[in-house]
Amino acid sequence: QSALTQPPSASGSPGQSVTISCTGTSSDVGGYDYVSWYQHHPGKAPKLIIDEVTNRPSGVPDRFSGSKSGNTASLTVSGLQAEDEADYYCSSYAGGKNFVVFGTGTKVTVL
Amino acid sequence: EVQLVESGGGLVQPGRSLRLSCAASGFTFDDHALHWVRQAPGKGLEWVAGVSWNSGTIGYAASVRGRFTISRDNAKNSLYLQMNSLRAEDTALYYCARDWSQSYYRGFDYWGQGTLVTVSS
Q: Which of B89, B107, B90 is CA-nearest to residue B99?
């Protein structure tokens, strides 16, 4: 049960796009379509922005989109805005003994 | 309004026990699975444990299995985490998180503000 691998950091200028990868195995990301993404501003509760790989919960801007190929899921933030600067975490169901696993986290900086 | 309010955190010595609670309101409690997620100082999010709506499915992270017990009381709209044999590495902010589904894991759509657990002598 190892953490999913994310790049430590990503950045872009306002209006640009940034894509964050989330790499797991066939036992988690690759084995289930239960991948979620969370936005976490320090001092606040995390916020669900994508679930079931591509679904955007109500109220989440369509600038956020998710995808998956094999054992790697991705989050793309288009049209970067200052308020998008935060930590982003992926998460996946991992079967087995009913595990859930988070990614290592990516700090997104808006330049 | 959905609310999840954690309590029970504090300073505890290594090897001792602590019980966290999460009081829920604003939604039909037994329509949702619930989980505990923690964040150690300066670290990322770590899933700790989860329980389905009827306690039929329960899971634990390897780091806490055998020491922590998750439970829920649907009559009291409450989630619990009994933490035994605490270690320094259990020091973290513990969040209660609601899954949007009954089953077990689809995504955590509401989170509490967290309760801080510090394990130190």
A: B107
